[in-house]
Amino acid sequence: MVFWNQSSDCCSWEGVTCDWSNGHVIGLDLSCSQLQGTIQPNTTLFHLRHLQTLNLAFNDFNFSTISPDFGSFPSLTHLNLSFSNFTGRIPSKICHLSKLVSLDLSDFDYYNPYSFSPVRLEQHTFNMLLRNLTQLRELHLDSLNISSPLPHALLNLSSLTSLSLGYCHLRGKFSENIFHLPNLRELHVRGNQDLTGKLPYFNATSSLQFLDLGDISFSGQLPESISNLKALNILYLFNCNLSGSIPASVWNLTKITNLAFSSNSFSGQIPSSNSNLAKLNSLYLSRNNLNGQIPDSLGNMSQLTLLALSGNNLNGQIPDSLGNMSQLTNLDLFENNLNGQIPNSLGNMSQLTNLDLSGNNLNETI
After folding, report:
1. How far is 270 from 307, CA to CA, in rounded Å?
2. Which residues lie below 8 Å from residue 44, measured CB to CB, with a gap of 6+?
3. Do 94 and 117 meet the contact criterion of CB atoms below 8 Å apart?
């Protein structure tokens, strides 16, 4: 817990930032401070009228409601109330914080991410927030109980670089217009199973670096235009009801480090033209309908630490080239139709901690 010596100048206290020209408190960071109880309306916190940044994340406010007075800081640019055990509705007065550039109200439940959060963001308040807070660059509302369609007003946030709406019980049609936000770098909408639609044509001008659309009920194929996302580092499209073959253009994402296509209906063979993926750390292709042999070229991914190909219809032998992946810690090939001898080259994987080859027709000697 933060300890403040009341006999000293408050500007010297841990977590407090002052404007030295006038002595006003302009920043308060009490995240992870083991604060408990409720925030009373008459607390001196709301007397700090010059606050620009306020961070109360990762505390325990005992399921008290979020006070409307959080919307009364006229100069506030950063507000973080995430993971602090609030309950009730997000007060509409927060929509008055017109100078906000960063807002984080996330309320993630690690044990049950699909459960309804006790914090609710009403559709009217959500729309008003998007219309009024047009300077936002970061908007993180993970696991809030929103239970409404994606608002069209999102397109008002032309400065937005990071948008996170995971597990919010969003419903209706996924709006591909989100991809038209000109400065968007990170988009996280995982876990909204009632969102439907198709993946759009991806524009070559996109600056996306992190794209997580897992557990959304898309239909159709992964478009070839995915290769236009040249800046992409992380791509999560697991359990998205995607079908067809994995386009070879995926392997043109030269900056990609994490790629997850598990639990879809992809068919055909694993593309072999993957020599461009020199930075790839993890590749998840499990639980699809992929067939054919494991391409030798996978062994060229020298930085790979995790390879998951389980639950497909892959056949033939395990290629010797997999032994070249000296950084691999996890290799999952179980429940395929692989046969033949387990290659001795797997013994070269000095970092390997998890190996599962069960559910195949392999000779059991190594």
Report:
1. 13
2. none
3. no
Provide the pairing of β-strand 16-19 with 24-29: antiparallel
pLDDT confidence of residue 5: 67
Find out whether 127 and 150 touch, Cβ atoms under 8 Å.
no
Name the pLDDT band for 352 (thresholds 50, 70, 90): very high
Query: At residue 320, what are phi and psi to the nearest 5 degrees?
Result: -60, -30
Condensed to tens digits (0 to 9), the pLDDT of residues 256-280 reads 999 999 999 999 999 887 667 889 9
The mean of the pLDDT values for the chain is: 92
Confidence grade of residue 3 (pLDDT, cut at 50, 70, 90): low
User: In Å, what is the CA distance from 60 to each residue of 33, 93, 117, 145?
Assistant: 9, 22, 15, 19
How many other C-beta atoms lie within 10 A of the C-beta of residue 3? 7
How many angstroms from the chain centroid is the CA of residue 151?
Answer: 20
Burial call 282-319: b when 16+ CB within 10 Å, e when fewer: bbbbbbbebeeebbebbbbbeebbbbbbbbbebeeebb
* Two tokens, residue 22: 């006038």
| Inter-residue contact 125 to 90 (CB < 8 Å) | yes
For residues 89-93, give the mean pLDDT. Answer: 96
Report the SS3 class of residue 262: coil
Model pTM? 0.93
Kindly tell me the burial class for residue 181, based on how many C-beta atoms sit within 10 Å of its own C-beta (0-12, 13-18, 19 or more). buried
Q: Where are the alpha helices (DSSP H) in 163-204?
A: none
Sorted by sequence, the CB contacts under 8 Å of residue 112 that are 6+ apart come out as none
Cα distance between the two ends of the chain? 54
